[in-house]
């Protein structure tokens, strides 16, 4: 092996060991006390630090702290049971009860992937949705809970919902929608969502809640959903330079001509504007400047109190995208 190769392997090994060590330390503490994790998830290339985690609009409590759960899946993604088996279809994670202060009806039990980064995670499908629930998702949940009835009788899909797909879950629990479909492209995220759906079935206000893997680059994953949804939810998915065209294509395909997309994400180094510019060939784009009054209050509070808070990469902005005729 050449010295250059050795050097690269050393860098990779050190990165894995550091990530594993950090994850182990994180795992040993309750979530509320954890140090911010390294990486701004989305801006992984940015090598920035996750300096701000939440506006406090949605909170999370570990169920049975200290317990690592295993969930097993059949081939079609059905959750079989909590399992002690060591086979490859078993995922390790922890159950969390989420709350939104002021909204008692929303208390889902959500399966979070255990925060251990494997080499496969580093090299495989984008893993940002398994790291945490990002502020954009949190803000979208709060907005949904604050607008009772806006999704009543509608077909709703969440795109790139990550391991929790909490916004879609909020619609399923609170909104008497006609249909709710939760999606992500990451297989581990999907396994978590399937487990979460199984755990919350009794709380849904519609029976028609499903989850499916939807990779934006795979038309076969979404062509059967053509013009199906009245509302498509999309939180913090615009920053992938290589996927913006595919994301615009998916959104246009699955949204009904009379429907719309609710898109929420930070500006993050111009990536949001880049997406909206691209999407404007297909959609009428309306900015929603005063999206959520409580978010605005929390934003001003954090801005004044947390020197590491950077609105450009943290503050979620909302837009409504209506298909062009
Ligand atoms: C920053 S995370 C946001 C997750 C969640 N919406 C949130 O805000 O917590 C971006 C999500 O996009 C998903 N994603 C990335 N590339 C994708 C693709 N090509 N197809 C489908 N999903 C993709 C990732 O799996 C991840 O869940």
How would the blueprint of this fold be written?
Elements: H1 3-27, E1 59-62, E2 69-73, E3 79-82, E4 90-99, E5 109-113, H2 119-123, H3 135-146, E6 155-159, H4 166-174, E7 179-184, H5 187-200, E8 209-213, E9 229-235, H6 244-254, E10 255-265, H7 271-279, E11 283-288, H8 293-305, H9 311-314, E12 317-323
Parallel strand pairs: 6-7, 6-9, 7-8, 9-10
Antiparallel strand pairs: 1-4, 2-3, 2-4, 4-5, 10-12, 11-12
Helix pairs in contact: 3-4
Bound molecules: S-adenosylmethionine.
Give an overview of the whole structure.
The chain is an alpha/beta fold and 325 residues long. It has one domain (42-325): Rossmann fold (3-Layer(aba) Sandwich). It is built from nine helices and twelve strands. The chain has a seven-stranded mixed β-sheet with strand order 8-7-6-9-10-12-11, sandwiched between helices. Strands 1, 2, 3, 4 and 5 form a five-stranded antiparallel β-sheet that branches. The longest helix is centred in the first third of the chain and has 25 residues, at 3-27. The termini are far apart. It comes from Salpingoeca rosetta (strain ATCC 50818 / BSB-021). Its EC number is 2.1.1.60. This is Calmodulin-lysine N-methyltransferase.
């Amino acid at each position: 092996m050449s010295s250059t190769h050795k050097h690269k392997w050393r860098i990779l090994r050190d990165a894995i060991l550091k990530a594993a060590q950090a994850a182990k330390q994180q795992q040993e503490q309750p979530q509320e006390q954890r140090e911010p994790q390294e990486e701004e998830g989305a801006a992984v290339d940015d090598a920035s630090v996750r300096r701000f985690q939440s506006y406090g609009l949605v909170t999370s409590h570990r169920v049975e702290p200290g317990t690592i759960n295993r969930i097993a899946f059949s081939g079609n993604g059905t959750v079989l049971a909590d399992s002690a088996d060591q086979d490859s279809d078993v995922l390790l994670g922890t159950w969390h009860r989420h709350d939104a202060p002021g909204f008692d009806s929303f208390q889902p039990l959500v399966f979070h992937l255990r925060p251990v980064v494997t080499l496969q995670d580093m090299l495989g499908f984008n893993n940002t949705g398994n790291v945490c629930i990002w502020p954009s998702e949190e803000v979208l949940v709060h907005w949904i809970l604050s607008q009772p009835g806006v999704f009543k009788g509608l077909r709703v899909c969440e795109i790139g919902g990550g391991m929790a797909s909490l916004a879609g879950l909020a619609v399923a629990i609170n909104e008497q929608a006609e249909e709710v479909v939760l999606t992500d492209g990451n297989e581990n995220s999907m396994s978590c969502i399937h487990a979460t759906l199984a755990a919350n079935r009794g709380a849904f206000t519609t029976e028609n809640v499903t989850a499916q893997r939807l990779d934006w680059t795979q038309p076969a994953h979404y062509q059967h959903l053509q013009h199906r949804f009245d509302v498509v939810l999309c939180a913090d998915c615009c920053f992938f330079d290589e996927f913006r065209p595919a994301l615009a294509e998916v959104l246009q395909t699955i949204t009904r001509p009379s429907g719309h997309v609710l898109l929420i994400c930070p500006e993050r180094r111009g990536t949001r504007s880049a997406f909206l510019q691209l999407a404007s060939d297909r959609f009428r784009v309306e900015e929603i400047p005063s999206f959520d009054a409580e978010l605005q209050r929390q934003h001003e509070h954090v801005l004044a109190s947390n020197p590491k808070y950077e609105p450009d990469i943290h503050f979620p902005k909302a837009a409504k995208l209506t298909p062009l005729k």
